[in-house]
Design goal:
The protein is mostly beta strands. Helix content is 8%, strand content 50%. The strands form four sheets. The protein has a five-stranded antiparallel sheet with strand order 1-2-10-7-8. Strands 3, 4, 5, 6 and 9 form a five-stranded antiparallel sheet that branches.
């Protein structure tokens, strides 16, 4: 039997966006989760397409679309798409930056794909997130557990572009030649005793100033440790300028060297100055005495920052 439900086990990466967003928890946008029970039914039926219910993010309505993709070499893939519900009816293009997720249910992690697309009446779907079907058969992957899969999407930024706007719009990405990573490590003290956001001192990388921000089981992200990179200079950026950054945030395991590290490519702007993961690690795992994440009430976080370039819309 094939069943669908909408699962919110935790919230993913959050942003503050001037372009608009789902107004929750101070204007931050959250991930939408879609759990499918009876996944084998989709595989057996083959060509069918399945849609999630509609959800709202950045003031637009979206759906997830799922289907099987057969490549010319005969390899089968699971294809996940973000679809827009508004572009056809509003007669305008919608530009969106987003992420698609497939959960690893055994390890509390996920695989993801970042997308940047224009949605309009002739193209309501974004890029395809393809994962080989045989990966779902692996008992070690955690993508399929008890015939259940969990997919997700997060719209980071989205705004409508009228025809006249598009005709006069030029977008350019100026890439840096020097891509030397800047690695910065900060020791956070009295972590479990704190009920406020903790921040490191500022450090320089790629011509900008940054800080590491830690949310230690605060009410905003209850039961999780949130870790973010904050751009100190974001307020001075022009409204249509974004800084394209590859970042890694790593919580050090001081006992076993089994560090927790997450990596992503993001756009910092005047409206999106704090980017990272609010579900970086569960608070229970942080406090686990067999792990070395919290020792003498100290956490050590390492940030690796590479400023890839500057994106400008004229």
């Amino acid at each position: 039997m094939l069943g669908f439900c909408f699962w919110h086990p935790f919230h993913k990466k959050v942003i503050d966006s001037k372009e608009g967003g789902e107004k929750k928890a101070g204007g931050r946008t959250y991930a939408f989760w879609w759990a499918i029970d009876g996944f084998s039914t989709i595989v057996n039926r083959g060509a069918d397409t399945y849609y999630s219910r509609s959800f709202t993010a950045c003031d637009f309505n979206w759906k997830l679309r799922l289907g099987l993709v057969l490549e010319e070499d005969g390899e089968k893939y699971v294809g996940l798409y973000l679809s827009n519900d508004d572009a056809a009816s509003k007669g305008s293009e919608i530009k969106a930056i987003y992420r698609l997720f497939i959960c690893d249910q055994l390890h509390g992690e996920h695989i993801q794909k970042e997308g940047k697309d224009y949605f309009h009446s002739k193209s309501l779907d974004g890029c395809c997130f393809k994962v080989a079907l045989n990966k779902f058969d692996s008992s070690k992957s955690g993508l399929l557990v008890n015939d259940r899969c969990v997919f997700g999407a997060q719209v980071l930024q989205a705004f409508a572009i009228s025809k006249s706007d598009k005709e006069g719009m030029n977008e350019s990405l100026s890439l840096n030649k020097d891509l030397t990573p800047r690695i910065y490590t900060w020791v956070f003290k009295d972590v479990s005793k704190s009920n406020v956001i903790l921040q490191s001192e500022a450090f320089a990388a790629g011509g900008y100033n940054w800080r590491i921000s830690l949310y230690p089981n605060v009410s905003t992200y209850k039961d999780f440790l949130g870790v973010f990179l904050v751009m100190d200079d974001a307020g001075s950026l022009a409204s249509k300028t974004s800084v394209y950054v590859e970042l890694s945030l790593c919580l050090l395991d001081l006992d076993n060297a089994k560090h927790r590290k997450l990596t992503g490519k993001v756009l910092f702007s005047s409206g999106s100055s704090s980017l990272g993961w609010n579900d970086f690690l569960s608070w229970k795992e942080v406090q686990d005495p067999s792990r070395g994440f919290l020792r003498n009430d100290i956490c050590i976080v390492e940030a690796t920052v590479v400023v890839l370039g500057v994106n400008t819309i004229a």
